Amino acid sequence: MKMSQGMSRRSFLTLTGATAAVAGLGLAGCGGNGGDEGSAPAGGTEGGGVMTIGSAYAPSSYDPANCSSAFCLSANMNVVEGLYNIDFTDYSVISGLAAGEPAKIDDNTYEVTLREGAKFSDGTDVTADDVVASFERANAEGGLYVSFLTMFDGIEKKDDTTVTVKCNIANFGLLKERLAIVRITPAGLSADDAAAKPVGSGPWMYDEMSDTYVVLKPNENYNGEFPATDSELRIDVLTDTTARTTAQEEGTTLITESVPPESIDQLEAAGVSIDQVNGFGTRFIMFNVKKAPWDNVKARQAIMYALDTEKMVANAFSGLASIPTCYLPDSFTNYHEASVTYTYDADKAKGLLDEAGVTPGSIVLRTTDNAQVVSMGTQAQQDLQALGFTVDLVSDQSPATYAAIDQADDSWDILIAPGDPSCFGGDTDLLLNWWFGDNIWMQTRCAWNTSEEWKTLNGLMSEALAADEAGQQEAWNQCFDILAENVVLYPVLQVVTPTGVWRENPNPEGVAVSSDFKGIGTTGVQVVGVSTVTA
């Protein structure tokens, strides 16, 4: 299976060019953004400045072997390399720690040689032992990435600078994309240390760490293609949309992610460029299927019809979102309209509740503190109250929200949250596996993995992974139908990602970002290979 079967790379970008196949976060050493010659200050000095970024998310665990935090993944993008890295501006794959292409030994076996002289930021050599240990950590039972790595029988050391990769799918077409999931850290780095302050071989290294910001310094031991040219990279936690917009408008940040749609005109009037990129990014709903009435598919479908998504698009996103007709957005290569689509229909919602024998009672609707999601939650609260439910709306930061859900104490009913697995890569199997593989989402958070529907779904996913292009599409179409019909976890809206950057114009202090910077269609900001430009 080639990448082009999962998406059309160059047609993936921008609102007008539409992102194709996508999707919760960027990865290490992704390479330069590429791009056209820009118009940053003529004759300006490139590099030597402080690159400042405003993040819409808060940090939790940085552990590259088990990380799902949007903030931490975006920061790790600059610090921790894989054998191969993904350029998230177009989802192309470039070498990271690998010296070149994998050498094919037979249909199921490949060898990868490490970049000569590669060192971690602590000065130690990167060796095959580090690669093997990193794979084992990422593939450990219960890990978030395990379902992405099922095609690997193992990675073994051949010699100090070469690893042997064994696959259980012959001529696996996404080898480099899936190797990019595994971030390479020193074999001796403990899980606690990796979670607090990872050590990597990328162009930057962590310096100051806090709950409200991180500061990165150049890694003097980096010998790859994209060395850091600025003196410092600072990422500030600016979850409040007003604070994030103000910081960008005033020039305190050079780049800001997740520009509130209602603030786009304001920032453009100030001179900020806005990159609007269609991606896999979703605002999804998840039901606690372990408890009634959410163990009844008709009750779940009733909620989907009860949500006034058109109001959500208008009020929370100023039109920069769409109502799904499939698990994938309709601009994606593998899109196929699902057997069931959901638009607002209060009468149909009430009828489905009656069919399910549900008398509306008190429920807990949780959301993360993402401003758009909070707005969606408020609308959903009103919509569900119109059905007769008493709705306790609880909004909190992502770590606290998932900590509450992971207690598995049935203290919640419905979750609405942002999610975007395209931060790991863009093929359709990966996008399905993030939520619906045999992992924490299906084992405990949504707990759907004992159902016959889930078993059928995963059988089809496995079938598609080893099939030809036509067979893949047929199997994926069936997957899309199963997800739409069961709606245990499903997109409520699919969104455009706007990123603000002082690029064509400098900020009030005369500093801009080099013209090769591009916003990406997933969470985070990619700045490897990008620099400040001072007039």
Describe this protein's structure.
It is a single chain. The chain has helices at residues 3-6, 70-76, 128-138, 175-179, 191-196, 241-250, 264-270, 297-306, 309-317, 346-356, 371-386, 398-406, 428-436, 440-445, 452-465, 469-486; strands at residues 45-46, 50-55, 84-87, 92-95, 103-106, 109-113, 152-159, 162-167, 204-209, 213-218, 232-237, 255-256, 273-287, 321-322, 362-368, 390-396, 414-419, 489-501, 511-513, 532-534. With 535 residues, it is of the alpha+beta class. The chain has a domain at 280-496: Roll (Dipeptide-binding Protein, domain 3), CATH 3.10.105.10. Strands 2, 9, 10, 11, 12, 13, 14, 15, 16, 17 and 18 form an eleven-stranded mixed beta sheet that branches. The longest helix has 18 residues, at 469-486. The radius of gyration is 23 Å and the shape is globular.
